[in-house]
Amino acid sequence: MKQEVDAAVAAARTDPTVARSLFDLARYGCRDAADVDRLLSTFTELGIPTGTLGHQPTATHLG
């Protein structure tokens, strides 16, 4: 399973369609805006561009 996740993350780094699909899947468990902000941060930490995901961090979590 780890290999599949690693492959999906690697693909998401270069393919915006894969990134959006992975984001939508991961976002399913988010309960509020703070959860989405943490997910966006995780994507950034993993090197997945977030600009094409259609979501921006909330003002309270911009730092």
Structural account:
The structure is a single chain. The chain is mainly alpha-helical and 63 residues long. It has three helices and no strands. It has helices at 2-14, 16-27, 33-45. Helix 1 (2-14) crosses helix 2 (16-27). The longest helix is centred in the first third of the chain and has 13 residues, at 2-14. The model has no long low-confidence stretch (mean pLDDT 88).
Topology summary:
Blueprint: H1 2-14, H2 16-27, H3 33-45
Helix pairs in contact: 1-2
Radius of gyration: 11 Å
How much strand?
under 5%
Assembly level: single chain
Number of domains: 1
- Helix and strand content put the structural class at mainly alpha
Can you tell me the residue ranges where pLDDT is under 50 for at least 5 consecutive residues? none
Coarse morphology: globular
Tell me the helix content. Answer: 55-70%
Offer a quick outline of the entry.
With 63 residues, the chain is mainly alpha-helical.
Pick out its properties.
63 residues; mainly alpha
